Hints:
CATH superfamily: Ribokinase
CATH architecture: 3-Layer(aba) Sandwich
Distance between the termini: 46 Å
Low-confidence stretches: none
Strand content: 25-35%
CATH class: Alpha Beta
Radius of gyration: 19 Å
Amino acid sequence: MENFDVLVIGRSCLDYIAVVERYPGENQKAPLEFRLTEGGGQGGTASCCITKLGGKVAYVGKLGNDEDGRFCLQRLTDFGVGTRYVDIVKGGATPVAYLFVTAASGARTIIYERNALPRIRVDATMEKLLGRSTLVLLDPEVTYLVREIKRLSCGNATIVYDCERWRDGIEDMMQAADYFIPSSEFLNAAELNFDHATLPDKIFKLKKMVHGRLVVTNGEDGAYYLVDDKLYHVVPPQVKAIDTIGAGDNFHAAFALALKKGFDIHGCVKFSVAVASLSCREFGGRNGIPDWPEAIAVADRLKTRHVDSH
C-alpha cells in the first residue's frame, strides 16, 4: 500500500448540472442556459480536492459497473485520485444527482437519487488502511461506520466528519468524531430543538452534545468555530461565486489536509474557507478548486474575529 495523507470514505455519484437564470416555482418553467456533467458525491469530490491541493488520498467508495460509473471513475483519475480502493459493483447502478444552479447567485438546488449500491463495509483492505491512517474523513453516507472505525484505528486516527443532516448514528458520531463539521442548516434540525435561538447560541448548544471540536460552515458567511469556550468567525474572501456545488465537500477536504499538515484550528478554518470559496468560481464543484499556493495566499489574507464567549 502506498503512503497517503488522508483516508476518505464515502459517496461517489454522477452529477447532471443545469444552469438557469432563475429557478422556477412549481408549475412554472424556465429556459436552460447550459448543462454539464461532472463526478459528484461528498467523498469523491473531497478526494479530488485533496489531490488538487497536492495531498495524497486513499479513497474508499463504490460505483456501479455502468456508463455513469465509468465516467465517475475517469473523473477521479483525471484529478489524480487512485481508484484501487473503489469497489465496482457488478450489475450495480451508480447513483445520480440532478443539480440546478441559479446563474445570478450561484445557489444550487439538488435532487439526489438514494444510493442503491451495497453499503460500504469494513473489510480486510479497509482494516489495513485504517491501521496506517492518522487522518480519516468520513462523509454523511458512512455515518454508521464510525464506531467500527474508531475501534479499529485504536484511537490513532483523527476523524473529521462531514455532517449533512440528522440521520441514524449521528449521536454516536457526535461522541466519536474529533472534528464534527456541520453546516448552519443542521442547527435547524427538529431533533435538536434549537428553535428561536441565535446562530451563536445554537453553536454553543450543539457543542454541549459534541465531544470533539465543533466547526460550523455558514455558506457565503464563512465559518464559525469554538476554542476554549470562545466563538470565532472567519470571514470569506471576496470571490464571484457562480456555482456553490461542492463548496462544503471542498471545505471538509481542505480541513482534513490542513490538519495533516500540522495547522492549528485557526489556520485550518481559514485555509478551508479559502478553498471552499475559491472552488465556487467555476461550474461543477471541482473545476474551481485552487492549488496549494493559491489557497495559502488567500487564506493568509483572511481575518478571524472573536464573536462571543459563553
